Amino acid sequence: MTDANRKPWLTASEQIDHLKSRGVHFSLMSEEDARAYLEKNSNYFRLRAYRLGFPKVEEGARKGSMQI
Q: Where are the domains of the chain?
C-alpha cells in the first residue's frame, strides 16, 4: 500500500468521536475510561488478524469485502 492510500492514525479522542458518529454508546464504560484504555493499549494488530478468518465476496458490487 502506498503512503497516499493509507488512512491517518486517529488519536484516542478521535477514535471515540468516530465510534460515537457510528452509533456506539458508552454504557459499559465511560468515554474517559475508554480514552484511557485506548491511550495505553493497542489491539489493532490483534483485531486485524481476526479479519483473515472471514471469507471474501467473490462477485458483485462488494467484491473483495468480507462476508459477515
A: 10-68
